[in-house]
Predict the 3D structure of the following.
Amino acid sequence: MSGSSFRVHSFVAVAAVLGFAAVGHAEDPVLVSITGPLVGRVGERASFEVEIVNRSGKPLQKLRVIDYFDKGFHHDASTSPIEQKGTIDLMPNTARRLTLDFLLDEPGRQCHRVEILDPSHVFVGGATHCVEVQPAVATAQPRVATPPAVAATPAPATPPVAAPLAMAPMATATTPPVAIPAPVPLPRAGNTVTLPATPALELDLVGPAEALSEAVVEYVATVKNTGAGVSPPSTLEFSWDDHLTPLEASDGYNLVASKVSWNLPAIEPGGHLKRQINLRAKAPAGAFRDSPATRSCIRAVLGGFGGGAMVADESCVMIASTTPRPRVRTPSEAGLKMSLADLDDPVRPGDPTTLVCTITNSGSEPTGRLDLVVALPDMARIDSERSAARVRIDDARVSFDPIPPIPPGGQRSFEITYRLPSAGTGRAAATLSSPELDGLVERTCQTSFLEP
């Protein structure tokens, strides 16, 4: 949104530890604290730091930041309210800092309030900060000699005023003496607020976006202190998804279960340090060169500095398999053969005939599992006592139990006996298939049923 001059910092690891800060209610999903001056003068600029902490325990996305301020505050870009450009996404227990500058225009108690709204425009957190704005200090004027007829007594000496903020009109020889206002008392020493320098930690995790299976992928986490104070000791932890296997890491690591961590020392303002981990990428079983790549991620979490605050970053890699997809053979290429014949032909109606199906493996490798189905003529009745295999019958369709692999040079035979109640030609068909082969083997057989 135009008109905003918020300055947004990256994720920070340490909450502002300042003597006076406006803090939001404890029950709000987002904790808001505002740090800035408590006392100021008309004409001065005041800078406020706003810290937003996600304490909801879940990710928050597209948060809006809006600031409402009294007329005694002047913003260079817009009147109240102003809204930060864009929105903010916060992982659980992470924070974001913003900076807002005002010009103090009017004396008195002047306040501004920061409110956080979710994508549904629902209030999720806020805080208010007020400043006691005092009048500007007037400029000391040159003393003009008082004519004897006017001044019966000399004017009292006026204490000097340091660092004037505004100039009064200059006196001239014909202008009566200008009364100089007494200086406005400043806060007593006991009320003076000294804001300590605070650290601000940033975390950046960098690694490849794509990798081949079995390749080594390197990830480097950089921790920077962009604040003005020394950061406290902290911890950095790496965790990763399946299909990534750790190989090596920077010195000083601790390996617990499937996580690697380091104890980090304090970091001076402007300083940084790095930690690296190398992992092997592995495509899942059953993935081939033409399969979609598999996405796996590694996460870095910076924490251990108290208060439950932490900073997190994530980097993901698409792992592509290098295994070529095996060529699917046809039954003929596998050396698979099949025959179907009847033992009795012709036969009289009502008499049985037996079909014999023989499967031969003339190839150099076992066949794998085979499935055999025989379709009998319409109105056929199966003679189960003379059929030499376990079958499942669905009308005239007979399915044999799955056939175990047949070794090279081996064969298997299957028989089924049936009858037809009337004269005619009985046509039977056998179909052989395998989940490991592309295509079918089909054979047919005709039997004549003749009247005597």
Q: What stands out?
A: Residues 201-320 form a domain with the Immunoglobulin-like fold (CATH 2.60.40.1530). Confidence is low (pLDDT under 50) at residues 1-20, 144-192. The chain has no helices and 31 strands.
